[in-house]
């Protein structure tokens, strides 16, 4: 861990991250965002903080910023299924269907035995995204409406 503040121990960081997650779960996105931004300043190499920050941005429809955070989280850990699924959802919402399918497919590849609950969600979203892409190819005018 590249914790730049020697006064803050790894257990303290974990506790603070758990507090941020609780804020997120309670819909207190602004408070969660502040926590994850502070954690990111303390340890910019921890991908979870980027993923969590991206999720808080996604929750308030800040798609471009969330995409930046998910991209960075995946750069730090290309097996981060939460970042991949969330980035896929951002791509879907931005109309980037092929990119979304790529991210969802990657999640399924990372968990072929379907052990992670996120994998089933990725399978469903990938199928829906593929169907949307096929419909757009069959009827290009309908996809522009």
Automatic annotation (TrEMBL):
Residues in TPR repeats: 13-46, 47-80, 81-114
Keywords noted in UniProt: Repeat, TPR repeat
SUPFAM superfamilies from the UniProt entry: TPR-like (SSF48452)
A Pfam family annotated for this UniProt entry: TPR_2
InterPro entries from the UniProt entry: TPR-like_helical_dom_sf (IPR011990), TPR_2 (IPR013105), TPR_rpt (IPR019734)
Family matches, as SMART domains: TPR (SM00028)
Name of this chain's protein: Uncharacterized protein
Native source organism of the sequence: Archangium violaceum Cb vi76
């Amino acid at each position: 861990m590249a914790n730049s503040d020697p006064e803050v121990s790894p257990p303290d960081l974990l506790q603070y991250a758990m507090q941020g997650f609780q804020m997120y779960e309670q819909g207190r996105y602004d408070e969660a965002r502040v926590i994850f931004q502070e954690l990111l300043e303390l340890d910019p190499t921890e991908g979870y903080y980027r993923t969590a920050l991206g999720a808080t941005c996604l929750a308030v429809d800040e798609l471009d910023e969330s995409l930046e955070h998910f991209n960075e989280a995946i750069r730090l850990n290309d097996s981060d299924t939460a970042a991949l699924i969330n980035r896929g959802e951002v791509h879907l919402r931005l109309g980037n269907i092929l990119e979304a399918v790529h991210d969802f497919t990657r999640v399924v590849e990372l968990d072929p035995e379907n052990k992670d609950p996120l994998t089933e969600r990725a399978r469903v979203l990938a199928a829906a995204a593929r169907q949307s892409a096929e419909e757009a190819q069959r009827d290009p005018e309908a996809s522009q409406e």
